[in-house]
Amino acid sequence: MGGTSASRRATPLLVMTLVGALVGTAGCAGIGMFRQARESAAVPERPLSRPIDADLLRHRLVAQQPEWPTGRLPAGPGFRTVDCSRIKCVALTFDDGPGKYTARLLDILAAHNARATFFVIGRNITREARPHLVRMVAEGHEIGNHTWSHPDLTRLSPAKLAEEMAKTNRLVKAYTGTEPHTLRPPYGTTNARVAKEAKRQGLAQILWTIDTNDWQERKTDVVVKRVTAAKPGAIVLLHETAATTVAGVPKMLEYFNRQGYTYVTISELFGEQYLQPGEKYREHAGMIQ
Ligand code: NI
To answer: Can you give the pLDDT at residue 112?
Structure first.
């Protein structure tokens, strides 16, 4: 490490987090890596080792200092225009969080440069969980609404139905500055009334192509096998509350990386303009062959 002992004393947190982020991002440490990354970007051939992703590094630094005021957050990687009728896309979705495995899952996704959509339950957004939500947005993931308390929406009174959606949206917006525009109805149960309320609140209903049944069948190999059966344009339903699922995510990502998939959020899968509030979506129509 460079720097005088005086500067190290002055900024110990920054130096430590910088080293930590470098180790976590590229498996190596040292300020010299910045120079190397810049040089390798100028070389036309693909470098053998992955250069440091400056954006990712920035976001990891922010993630490690959750007490930073959100107003000082750098802008996230943001929404990308991805044409999933031309390239192989997969939309991984993780339901029922945030929870005790969220940080680990975010680390795994970051290490693979993968993004996903988190359908969060409002009442799980505790004070301790707030930094996870900030990190999701900072690292390019999408936060979707999975209601306030996970009820069967078709059985609720109109007032309660509206509240289940609105409370979670309000809370996510309060902590992250972004408001969900996708809803995953618990158990996938929905009807015309739910659709109408979702439309009123600007939420598209997102179901799934592949149901891994991972919340029930807690076997990592079985879940990985189901996920890797995905075809381009698939929405994969997973639960971040299952340790067995989180343990299998590296294998899933290694598989999709080998197959040349692009990880997309739900909004990227369909294109933000295309998602219509109240409508139901199960998959992207697929690639044009
Ligand atoms: Ni759920």
So the answer is: 85
CATH architecture of the domain 89-281 equals: Alpha-Beta Barrel (3.20)
How many angstroms does the Cα of residue 120 sit away from the middle of ligand 1?
8
Query: What is the pTM (predicted TM-score) of this model?
Result: 0.75
Selected residue with higher pLDDT from 61 and 91: 91
Token digits for 31? 């300020």
Tell me the CA–centroid distance for residue 93 and ligand 1, in Å: 11
Spacing, Cα 122 to ligand 1 middle (Å): 12
Q: Give Cα separations from 259 to 90, 158, 251 (angstroms).
A: 11, 45, 12
| Stretch(es) of the chain classified as CATH 3.20.20.370 | 89-281
- What is the Cβ-side half-sphere exposure of residue 122, based on CA atoms within 13 angstroms? 24
Distance separating alpha carbons of residues 86 and 145, to the nearest angstrom: 28
Summarize pLDDT for 158-187 with one digit per residue, the tens: 999 999 999 999 999 999 999 999 999 999
Using CB atoms within 10 A of its CB, is residue 68 exposed (0-12), middle (13-18) or buried (19+)? middle
Residue 235 CB coordination number (10 Å):
26
Q: Active site includes 96?
A: no
Can you say whether residue 194 is alpha, beta or left, with left for phi > 0 and alpha for psi between -120 and 50 degrees?
alpha
Active site residue 59: no
| pLDDT > 90 fraction of the chain, expressed in percent and rounded | 64
